[in-house]
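Hi Y.,

Following your request, here is the sequence exactly as I used it, all 394 residues.
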Amino acid sequence: MRGPLDGYRILDFTRYQQGPYATVMLSDLGAEIWKVEPPGGDPGRASDLSGDGFSRYFEAHDRGKRSIVLNLRDPAAVEAALRMAERCDGVIDNYRPGVMDRLGLSYGRLSARNPKIVMVSASAFGSEGPQAGEPGYDVIGQATGGVMTLQALGGEAEPRTLPGGFADQVGAMQACIAMLAGLIAAKDSGHGQQVDVSLLGSQIALQSVYITGFLKDGQQPHMRRRRMPTFTFYQASDARWLVIGVVDPRNWRALCSLMGHAEWETDERFATAPARMKHTDELEALLEECFASAGRDEWLRRLREADIPAAPVNDYADVEASEQVWSNGYLTEIDDPRYGTRRVTGLPWSFSATPGEVQGRAPELNADADSILSECGYSVDDIAQLRSCGALPA
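Below is the corresponding structure, written out as tokens. Let me know if you'd prefer a different format.
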């Protein structure tokens, strides 16, 4: 199914998660992804392996791509990569700054062969500053960007991480945005450019509200068990959980009425949002008692009838069973020659004219080497020569 990036091609030197998921999103949008892997393959291929050889990690981050293995220590392989770049609109890597230069694949060399190419480099700390060359993974991004301190339940409490991969996923989204913007600029100007994104910068952007407040008043925010008494979770009588999102005054009035406590509207402890925050413990205790009086589904019915924002707290089985999720294509099915028809995450966007789609499963290692090189002008004999010299591992 045609996507908004149909006709675009991206040369992908990424590995693990931050970079690979960026190119998954570009693939879902219709771009063709040529994934260049080192001998032995992307290390992500060996992560989270199940007994039948399935890697949820690699499948999630590399679906819909074409794979070619190049030994970039060999000049012939570097030349092959440059020739591939001539036929691509963008190139993305997530090595440390300077690695692509040392491999002979700097932006200068790439743009000399293709002036319109957009190069996005996704690092841990960015291309400038004293930490530019340091290594980093998801947990490093979470730590240095401040989100682990934000998650702590108070100033003296231990830091807490977001689930593994969240910094990588946010970094991937920023890399995808950067590539999209670069491609638009190149189409308009006829010239490409080099773009840098990082885990550190992405984590700071993610926390813009909290950091903006800190930069104004110098107060380090921390998470609470509940964010605020009317914007949080409660347990119903059947031990299942739901959330309410009451911020609008009319929703507060409706909630008071629904709970059978119209007097809360004028109670000086609860009449205004600042007062409710000041008396959080008291209001939470009252709401906990109310919600414990009926089952979750009954409460959700009542809340929806009153037009009060509310939702169940879903586990993944609930997500999979959700009609809303399937109606919007947030989960979908693909045909997998190895594992049969299986369910996968879908696209978070919906385009009326160019919808895009999941392009298929993750590629077998080096499965597309011959076809990619052929598209770049290599003959059968040329490809055989690359193999004989070790530039293209068998």
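Residues 112 and 250 are 61 Å apart (CA to CA).

Thanks again,
Q.
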